[in-house]
Amino acid sequence: LEECAIKLWNWGVTNNVGVTISTIQKAQRHVACSLLYCCEPENPTEGTIRKQILMASKTGRTWLDCKNPQMADKYLSLASLEILYSQLMSRGNGTADISSSKEDVEKDLLRILSYQAESAITQGNNKEAVAYIQRCKDMLLRLPKDTAYLSLMCYNFGIDAYNVRKYEDTAFWLQSYDIGKMNMKYGPGSEVLAKALRLLATVYLEWDCEKFAEKAVNAVSLANKLQQLNEMLESEVSLELCLSTVKLLISEKEALAFEYLKSVCQHFETSPDLGTALVLHIELLLQRGKELLGKQKIEDVITGHCTGKQLTPQALTSLHVLLWDKASKYFEAGSYSEALQWYNYSLSLFKGGQMEPNLAKLQRNRASCFLKLKQLEKAKEAIKEAQRCDPDNIFTQFSVYKVAVQENEAEKSKNPVACEDRLLVSEDAASNLLSLAAQIALEQNGQQETAMKALEILCEHSKDQAQVLVALCLVRLVLSTIEKLSDEIDVSLDVLLPHLKKLQTISHPSHMTVDQRTEEANWFRKIWNLALQCESSPDKMRDFFVLSYQFSQLCPPDRTLLMGQRTCLLMAAAASLELGRKSSHPTQTQTLEHIQICSEVWKTLKASSFPMDPTDSLLLLYEFEARAKLNDPIVEAILESVLELESVEPKMLETMALAMEPPAYFPLLCKKALRVALFLHKKQPQADLAHCKCVHSLIKLSLPSGVSEVEAHVLEEVWNYYEEALSIIAAAPDDFPEMETLWLLTQAWNTGILLYSLAQYPEAEKWCGLAMSFVRHLGSLQESYETQMSGLYSKILDRLDKAKKNVNMKE
Fold first, then answer.
1. Which of 189, 195, 190, 132 is nearest to 158 (CA)?
2. Which of 574, 584, 581, 508 is nearest to 544 (CA)?
3. I need a labelling partner for 698 at 20 to 30 A (CA). Which of 60, 152, 218, 637 fits?
């Protein structure tokens, strides 16, 4: 069947010698196409699919010519390109082959979509036709040569709609002359555009003269301008005047400007100054965000420049400026691949073996892109070219240094600027490069020694004190490294201290203005941010907060600054206390120093209103802990000061009690703080006493730890705390933690056993009985403990009875 279908089709093609297709030939196409699809295999080959698409699209076109759109739709829908496209993508015959085949498929697809749009128009489905044409427009960037075809099709749709007086549809299709702007080179030309504009004006007037009068006038005006501009060209005006006209038009009549520029380029095609017009065209495209079209134009210009149609030196320079500006913007935005593409366009315009400083600069810029893209070998090739063109340039030497840093070549990287007699630029430029050299060394490969060397040279030789201050970016670089604290990166603050001293020296008013000093000091106050990242290193956190405070002292004092100083000192004190808890080295004295300075700052701030501010409480809390660890008896006075505050949080008192644990030992003060905390917990509207640790801590502090501490008043005090615990359990039996109940039971039982060993039998019975009262409050453990405890308790009671009888008999 397939062979018959192909023979029938070919017979019809060979018999088609006229312009029109006969009825017999139409029938032949219809039958041949139907036969081919009837014998379609399960997995058709690429060749079979291509035959099916060709026959289906041609048959669909034939039915359209026969004014039978329904039949046309049937065959156009059969011409599906998805299967063919997927086969092409899975094929491995080479990238160029695939790209070529894909382009052929896309061309066929555009034709089929345009046929389907024509069919929809014939059937009055304007909305459907718009959708098909939109898909075609989306493909024009890849198929620019079809611009005129699609533009003229839209114009014809407009004519058809106008013939049946569908003004809205007519206006839409005639406005599709915008398609021609997508690629001016392959557009339909200014004459067709003017014709479409005049018809559009007629449509507006016939549709609604009052409503669309202004649009009609604008359309006619634009058509007339097109005609006038063409007449200008015919009158042999200069290229310069034509380009000036384009610049005047572009802001208000963009489409007209580009159309006229296209005509100008065609008119002056043989002029040696044509490059000026081409560069202007590229510039206007890029200014208006038409980057893809701009790239196509650039590639055309490069091809022409390299094949004989060379640009004038002025036009060439202008184009280089455009390309470098675009590349620079992409580089600053972090799009290094795009930046490299624009620099490569510029490189294509240089002759092979050419030597000049601008080429060296271009190669340095390319090397920077390669380095950012981690393409070290390509960066080295670009730098070699830069050295060939301008070996003594300081920026070339700096580029060599950047590559050396990437390769960890210590000897090269330690001397980023080779020697003083090679500094052929200003001292400021050299200083800036030295600062940048240090930054690259530390940020890219953590080469602190190299960074320090660069900055030491700068500090020694620079005469500008303000520049030296900025150049102390070593401090900044070390700090930026600490931002990434990890096991591998642990930068000691000892590295920073000598440079910070240098910073304080040159920050003296005799060397800098107040504004300069304030600006730089404010930058270094960012150490605050790094301090917050040192949660696992309280020593670093403390030192960073202290440094931030010290830099703030270089700034004029105001309310915001004082609040920052207060926070830095509070955080430094807290970090110092934390360090004391984790380390064997005492830090309490240093903590008290931070607290003292913070108190002075806070006194100044408190002159203004600070309602509900916790600073007073925190200062007292930190001082209390520091002095408690020093066993300073003044802690009693501090506790009294806390209790005199207007509002005291129970949590604060519990924290103070924890601060008095060994090696600090103030049991009476500790119990006082806990009792007040318990009292405050009870006063709260929704007190959660079941999870309050106060009673636990009070019992733990009061229980006798040995025979010498067993006294009646001690036992009575502990008994009272136990009764408090029982009342809390009774109030919330389901909320009280089971392990806490078990702890209370165990401590009471052990106390009873201790009293039994001391022959205090009545007291022993009392405490063992107290322990038994907790058994019923155990949850999942109740059954096992009840069995064990009941047996033990019975034995204890028996022994108590025997012991009592023995005592009575002796008496």
1. 195
2. 574
3. 637
What's 44's domain CATH number?
1.25.40
What integer is the mean pLDDT of 270-285?
79
**C-alpha–C-alpha distance, residues 459 and 438, integer Å:** 12
Nearest by Cα to 544 from 555, 558, 532, 559: 532
Listed in sequence order, the residues at least 6 apart from 307 whose beta carbon sits closer than 8 Å to its beta carbon are: none
Burial of 468 (0-12, 13-18, 19+ CB in 10 A): buried
3-state helix, strand, coil in the chain (%, to 5): 75, 0, 25
The boundaries of the domain holding residue 799 are 719-809
HEC string of 749-784?
Answer: HHHHHHHHHCCCHHHHHHHHHHHHHCHHHCCCCHHH
List CB contacts of 385: < 8 A, sequence separation 6 or more. 359, 360, 363
Residue 774 backbone phi and psi in degrees, to 5: -85, -15
Question: How far apart (Å, rounded) are the C-alpha atoms in residues 448 and 413?
Answer: 11
Out of 142, 158, 174, pick the residue that ends a domain: 142
Cα gap 746→775, rounded to integer Å: 10
Determine the 3-state secondary structure of 19 from DSSP.
coil
Tokens of 248: 């005047």
Averaged pLDDT, 87-96: 55
How many angstroms separate the CA atoms of 160 and 158, rounded? 5
pLDDT in tens, 383-438: 888 888 888 777 777 777 777 766 765 444 444 443 333 333 444 566 666 666 66
Reported residue count of the chain is: 811
Q: What is the DSSP string of 784-806?
A: HHHHHHHHHHHHHHHHHHHHHHH
Tell me which of 94, 111, 142 is where a domain ends. 142
